[in-house]
Amino acid sequence: MTAFCLLPIESSTQEKPNILWIMADDMGTDLGCYGNKSVKTPNLDKLSSEGITFTRAFTVTPVSSPSRSSLITAMYPVSIGCHQHRTRNKTSLPVGVLPITEYFRHAGYYVCNGDGTRLKRPGKTDYNFTFADKPIFDGPDWSARKPGQPFYAQLQIQYPHRPFKKDTLHPVDRSTVLIPPVYPDHPVTREDWALYLESVQLVDKYVGQIMQRLEEEGLLNNTIVMFFSDQGRPMVRAKQFLYDDGTQIPLIVRFPDKKSAGIKTEDLVSVVDIPATSLKLAGIRLPETMQGQDIFSDKKRKFVFSSRDRMDETVDRMRSIRSNKFKYIINFYPDRPYTQFNTYKKTMYPVLTLMKVLYSQGRLTPEQSLFMASERPAEEFYDLVKDPFEMKNEANNPNFTIEKERMRKELVKWLEVNDKGAYPEDQAEVGFWKNDAEQAYQKKMKSYGLPVDISDEDYLKWWEIQLNLN
């Protein structure tokens, strides 16, 4: 990698604050502090009451590795060759792009990455690039830093990523779970959703343990805590897709002095802004090439952008732009169904099988059926104020032509500047992941004791048994 000079730290008379990220895996805004009354999240609710809660924060892509690539660079994954989930032959970052840990190190920080459920053990380094200069992190835990040295730390909590884990101490009341209208209200849906919420409650438990540790070690009064997720819910039509269910994330920032405690803001925020903001809070000047921006500056976003490309073996390409009122999506493969085969979703999402069965029986609503169709529109446009679940595509509605064209032009302009991905992807790479997924599918179905060619109807019956519904 070509060397380049880091910008110096801005002078400050204050002691440098610690920066702690607590990261959940695959979690939407399903918390008490965001208005969900079916889930018990006292620790995160407390964090929200002591901090600033962002109600319109969004990921740059609805899957883990590209999102994490963005979080560690403050760059869009489509700009740095990290947009495919995943790749065999990872490339180096473009010249002038560094992991943010390099900036923290230059400012005197100890940088670490740990498992939030098993403290002092390494966390994920699920990035789509190589960085050969040195290890990205100094270690798994801040306890190894020098006396008085500030730290930047990630603590990663694996939940509520599937498979879900029950909260046996505080089971969610299935009857109170609110099922979004894009899904059939069915016992399978209700049970799956409740298990998701129980996994969210486990996230809350671990957040409580982390905050207690900070207090016991005397660090709470000098640590800025940021809680967020890498992408939205692990649900059908959510994770891997550009609707809000897949891109909207929680974001809570707590300052040591509880500045602005209890405030909720509707400012548009992108995941790419979280690392940039973290650097600024540490007093570090941002490179001009960095695409993230400080969420606490006077400069506010009018739009956030998200993308979806190949995920495992499933080739796709979508781009979206979102304002406070509207969402515009381009589908580059309109001839393909939303529900292209994907081993992960086939083997882990019972509601996907449920919807396939109900669709074949004509028992889905017209809006639910759209997601199961064999094709999709080239463009989607949603009025998020009137249609928050993005169920009515207004792309061909003349009443929205002006606004749609304005957002389309903004998205095209953004793509021309930022979308550096090569298309189509090398077929040898695609073929490798298709073969890898086929082997994984056969192995998973064998572990289930099921034939690989099981019918949807029989597969649904199996899921009902696993969910204790029969």
What does this protein look like?
Strands 1, 2, 4, 6, 7, 8, 9 and 10 form an eight-stranded mixed sheet that branches. The protein is globular, with a radius of gyration of 22 Å. It folds into two domains: 18-297, Alkaline Phosphatase, subunit A (3-Layer(aba) Sandwich), CATH 3.40.720; 318-466, no CATH class. It has twelve helices and 14 strands. It has helices at residues 42-50, 64-71, 100-106, 187-216, 244-247, 273-281, 343-348, 350-360, 366-370, 401-418, 427-448, 456-466, and strands spanning 18-24, 52-58, 91-92, 110-115, 129-130, 151-157, 223-229, 248-254, 263-265, 269-270, 304-308, 318-322, 326-331, 379-383. Helix 8 (350-360) crosses helix 12. Mean pLDDT is 94; it is low at 1-14. It is α/β, with parallel strands linked by helices and 470 residues long.
